[in-house]
Fold:
Amino acid sequence: MELKPSGSLKIDTFSMRVGDIESVELDRLHALSLSVGWPHRAEDWQFLRESGEGFVALDEIGRVLGSAMWFAHGADFATVGMVITSPRLQTLGAGQWLMKRVFENVVGCDLRLNATRAARRLYLSLDFQPEKTVYQCQGIARMQTTGRPAKSRGDVRTLDAGDIPAAIALDAAGFGVRRAALIEKLFAHSAGYGLFKGDKLNAFALCRPFGRGHVVGPVVAESDADAVAIVRPHVADHSGSFLRIDTHMDNGEFAAFLAHSGMPVFDTVLTMSLGKRLADFAVGDATTPVTYALASQTLG
Ligand SMILES: CC(C)(COP(=O)(O)OP(=O)(O)OC[C@H]1O[C@@H](n2cnc3c(N)ncnc32)[C@H](O)[C@@H]1OP(=O)(O)O)[C@@H](O)C(=O)NCCC(=O)NCCS
Structure:
């Protein structure tokens, strides 16, 4: 006579080891981010792997159960991102374990990240301090048909490789840290518009394929009107398709423009830092470049 199997089964917990993120196949990373509902494509992971460094958590048979990355800009500053643990493992300490492996590799660096709601407690427990809310604005882009556009100061033109040094300098002034390699790499994957006065680049906005469609960022400008002037052509280019932009701006002409362009606030994350803060949220004078949109939540 066969025994009836029990209705429940206790499975032992298993151990994990840490591995280099370069050592695993792209589709496994893609499966990990899909498991937590993130929109990244395999190509987005590849872009991030080429731009930074990271770890994965692997089980005994090589399944990817977690990830954490960092993106260093110079010797003193890095952003942290793609911190994921597989849903079955969450709240068991794997997130902390991965973050501590990251810390070992960024000794002496000030750190910044953008924390999802699920991750805030993890980062608070690691002494990260809240800075400012990021508004993830997205939807089907549409050109505004009503209203008179505010006056920007200059001519809007498409960007090319010759504009990279000026964009790097503007980004550094807005963000607070020079990100030359990242901006150069973003240029290679993006379409860009710049606001010029004569030959001088005063503002720029890049836009590249990402997730469900395209993402606009970074956007650096000196005023809401200038920021709108360089984002508007990207909205026109992608009218009728999915467009996303991550911004710290919660009011004013730029925030209103996004909502009226089919990109209302979809979600928020919280910018947090460990160590010295960047100066980008300080109120500058009227001619200080400001980061109007992040390169992405992961990259800052
Ligand atoms: C955020 C995330 C990486 C946390 O990983 P984790 O493996 O659960 O983290 P840990 O188990 O190490 O937890 C660290 C702390 O957060 C707490 N915590 C984790 N998840 C929690 C939850 N859902 N609710 C309440 N507390 C939670 C833990 O209890 C622990 O607190 P303690 O130090 O006071 O004990 C994981 O939930 C995840 O992948 N979420 C989806 C993707 C995501 O949002 N990533 C963050 C990107 S910024």
Q: What stands out?
A: The first strand starts at residue 17 and ends at 20. Residues 36, 83-85, 89-96, 113, 115-116, 118-119, 121-122, 125 surround coenzyme A (CB under 6 Å).
